[in-house]
Amino acid sequence: MKIVQPPLLQKGDFIGIAATARKVSSEDLSFALDIIEKRGYRVILASNIYSEYYQFAGTDEERKRGLQELLDNPEVKAIFVARGGYGTVRIIDYLNFEKLKEYPKWICGFSDITALHAHVFNLGIQSVHSTMPVLFSKSEIAVQSLFDLLEGHSVNYTFQSHCLNKLGCSEGYLVGGNLSVLYSLSGSSSQMDLKNKILFIEDVDEYLYHIDRMLMQMKRAGFLKNLKGLVVGGFTDMKDNTVPFGKTAEEIIYDAVKEYDYPVCFNFPAGHITDNLAFIHGKKINLIVNKNEVKVFYTENS
């Protein structure tokens, strides 16, 4: 499978801001719009950007149309999804990706946007798992990592090892995102073939038993058996019942994959954490998990 990298951004390029899930306000976006323009880019807002329909940024049709216009606009070189929440999966089957396949562009975001990352990977196009405009004010480091990738700067990550890590080294396409969204894509056209991939997972505000249930489903379906590696980001604000489940999220994940012969690392600096560092979804990485540290760096020309 050939995975295409969209063109790197050049100063003066247009960046589209989409709203595919929860609603946003002009106040939510003002900081990010200022940052984008100060970095030398121009902005095009989706037609539904400030629309409201209960919790959503407009009806399904409005959100679909807003994203479709950005996908089809040849001047837009990257699309930043304004925020997550829930809603992208409701419109994804009604989008036309022909223009994106003809003229690839970066789609950037995380959480609910995992559905888009998975779908465009199946089309053979890289994207960026990253912070989103409503969070730009929270972390300069996260924003910088996003633009570093989009502008072609070298980005490698080294971080401290975790007591549950499984040591080893591997090479493969780094794919994945929010565990709950990945779980929800099972059996759909957006489900990725995870064989020989390095899987990244993260989640927020989930019950521990549900983390276990999702992993058991993925394990029973064979999704975890033939990975090249597992990279675990933030599992933030986990919840438990009155009668404790008895394991942390990290212990649940470790137990699900401990029998497999591939490296596993925890505490990768991405997900629902303050400094949510960006990575290219669908690009080959080298994963090296040592006793004291973990190194993640990209394979050239992948």
What does this structure look like?
The structure is a single chain. The chain has 302 residues and is α/β, with parallel strands linked by helices. The protein folds into 2 domains: 14-150, Rossmann fold; 157-298, LD-carboxypeptidase A C-terminal domain-like (Glucose Oxidase, domain 1, 3-Layer(bba) Sandwich), CATH 3.50.30. It contains 8 helices and 13 strands. A 7-stranded mixed beta sheet has the order 6-13-12-7-8-9-10. A 6-stranded mixed beta sheet has the order 2-1-3-4-5-11, sandwiched between helices. Helix 7 links the parallel strand 8 (197-204) and strand 9. Helix 7 (208-220) packs parallel to helix 8 (249-257).
Task: List its salient traits.
302 residues, alpha/beta, Rossmann fold, Glucose Oxidase, domain 1, 2 domains, six-stranded mixed β-sheet, 13 strands, 26% helix
Gist?
By secondary structure, the chain is an alpha/beta fold. The chain has helices spanning 26-38, 60-72, 98-102, 114-122, 140-150, 179-184, 208-220, 249-257, and strands at 14-18, 42-45, 76-81, 106-109, 127-129, 157-160, 168-178, 197-204, 229-236, 264-265, 279-281, 283-289, 293-298.
What is the fold's blueprint, element by element?
Layout (H helix, E strand, L loop, with lengths): L13 E5 L7 H13 L3 E4 L14 H13 L3 E6 L16 H5 L3 E4 L4 H9 L4 E3 L10 H11 L6 E4 L7 E11 H6 L12 E8 L3 H13 L8 E8 L12 H9 L6 E2 L13 E3 L1 E7 L3 E6 L4
CATH class of the largest domain: Alpha Beta
**CATH-level-4 superfamily name of the largest domain:** LD-carboxypeptidase A C-terminal domain-like
Distance between the termini: 11 Å
- Summing up helix and strand content along with how strands pair, one would put the structural category as alpha/beta
